[in-house]
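Narrative of activities, Objective 1.

The group set out to show that a structural description can be obtained from nothing but a protein's sequence at a throughput compatible with the screening campaign. Below is one input-output pair from the validation batch, recorded exactly as produced.
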Amino acid sequence: MPLAMMFGKGTLLPYLLDRGITKVDYMMISHFDFDHCQGLLYVMEKIKVKNVIIGRQFEPCDNYEQFVKIVKEKKIKVSIVEKEQKINIEKDVYFSILWPGSKNKITENVLNNNSLVCKLLYKDFSMMFTGDIEEVAEKVLLDRYKDTSMLKATVLKIPHHGSKSSSIEEFVKQIRPKIAIIRSWKK
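Output recorded for this entry:
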């Protein structure tokens, strides 16, 4: 069993069930690299998931095919979003989708650089989710939102596990997070 799927079976699902959570209203998948979706796919198979939010897929992959199969079997609603969309979760809670857009995909490392990038907003709190974008995508976002406060966030999920291909200084400075979260990943 892949390590990411073991995370779903051994950590994520037991955590949810231990807290009495037997259904998920919204799930968001940044992209379909195994370490970003396998645990979630496992959860989708085991408990009720009402809605899944994903970005446009520009390249076929096995994980996406597995996702489509689960969605059909479980009759899960899927929202395919792209930049400039807003996803309302409940009163005062919403996501602003910043990337990707269907007309301007990044062709370099397609799966990672077209990860879903979104900002969760709740009153004065905001959190930036960046998937596995790399420097090339960070520069596109910097250019696109340079004259706005759209990139500023209270919390930043550091792009691509803090790899050397991401988290350029200008990008982090533009976001100006009070807290930065980095998730290590060991294969």
